[in-house]
């Protein structure tokens, strides 16, 4: 049974592209949004983007759902963003902060946002990127800014100071919310909540482990010892080589 940690204020968005699981999670009202991306869709074997999106939106008609563009050229990106936005009133269009050439997407972001298209600007990893995106979003449509805190942590850097600084920048863009994206562990959910981050995206695996938050460590230690013992017995492991005396 998946349960929301009591007392947490950070919004939990389910991240994935597994339709059965997305339908399952849509039954939980405390899952306040859904996100996906081309990598997750490829892993799930999705090939028909329109059909996938239609099924997701049929299951989730009442909460934000983010779908990502699939182009690298500005004109195509703009056309795709407008097409995706037309799929539903609760749709947010995910636009990467740069194209593959490293060129900032801020002009496109500004244009789309001020045309009323709700955006989820993604793949952000630096404070200057946050600042540039926020300048583009001022007075625009409601939006999300996804900072890939998990990938930042993968490089050996603590993402918390950056996320705190990003929240300060977002105070100048009241219609934008900060997403702690790509979390790696349950601790990240706690960290996001503690600093006042608006949203954290969570995979199905992390959602299943939310019940561990606040677990008594003595009891958890005992459960771990019992698990290790039972696994050793089940595997028929032995540490002593027995010899037959003649």
How would you explain this protein's 3D organization?
With 246 residues, the protein is α/β, with parallel strands linked by helices. The protein has a single domain (11-214), classed as Aldolase class I (TIM Barrel). It has 11 helices and 8 strands. It has helices spanning 19-25, 38-43, 49-59, 74-85, 106-114, 127-137, 149-154, 160-170, 186-195, 204-208, 217-235, and strands spanning 11-15, 31-35, 65-68, 91-96, 119-124, 143-147, 176-180, 199-202. Strands 1-2-3-4-5-6-7-8 form an 8-stranded parallel beta barrel, surrounded by 6 helices. α1 (19-25) links the parallel β1 (11-15) and β2 (31-35). α5 (106-114) runs parallel beside α6 (127-137) and α6 (127-137) packs parallel to α8 (160-170). The radius of gyration is 21 Å and the shape is elongated. The mean pLDDT is 96.
Characterize this entry briefly.
This protein is 43% helix and 16% strand. It is of the alpha/beta class. It has an 8-stranded parallel barrel, surrounded by 6 helices.
Compute the number of helices: 11
Structural class: alpha/beta
Arithmetic mean of pLDDT: 96
Strand content range: 15-25%
| Number of structural domains | 1
Unreliable stretches (pLDDT < 50, length at least 5) are none
Shape: elongated
Tell me the distance between the termini.
Answer: 57 Å
CATH architecture: Alpha-Beta Barrel
């Amino acid at each position: 049974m998946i349960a929301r940690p009591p007392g947490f204020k950070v919004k939990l968005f389910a991240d994935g592209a597994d339709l059965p699981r997305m339908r399952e999670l849509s039954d939980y009202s405390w899952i306040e949004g859904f996100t996906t991306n081309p990598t997750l869709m490829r892993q799930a074997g999705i090939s028909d983007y329109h059909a996938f999106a239609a099924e997701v939106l049929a299951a989730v008609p009442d909460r934000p759902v983010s779908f990502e563009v699939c182009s690298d050229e500005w004109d195509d990106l703009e056309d795709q963003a407008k097409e995706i936005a037309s799929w539903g009133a609760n749709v947010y269009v995910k636009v990467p902060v740069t194209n593959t050439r490293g060129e900032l997407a801020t002009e496109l972001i500004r244009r789309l946002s001020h045309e009323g298209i709700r955006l989820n600007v993604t793949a952000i990893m630096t404070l200057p990127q946050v600042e540039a995106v926020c300048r583009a979003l001022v007075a625009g449509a409601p939006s999300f800014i996804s900072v890939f805190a998990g990938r930042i942590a993968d490089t050996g850097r603590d993402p918390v100071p950056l996320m705190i600084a990003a929240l300060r920048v977002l105070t100048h863009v009241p219609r934008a919310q900060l997403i702690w994206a790509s979390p790696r562990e349950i601790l990240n959910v706690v960290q996001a909540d503690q600093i006042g981050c608006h949203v954290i995206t969570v995979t199905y695996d992390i959602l299943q482990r939310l019940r561990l938050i606040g677990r008594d460590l003595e009891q958890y230690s005992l459960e771990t010892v019992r698990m290790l013992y039972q696994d050793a017995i089940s595997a028929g492991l032995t540490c002593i080589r027995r010899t037959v005396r003649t």
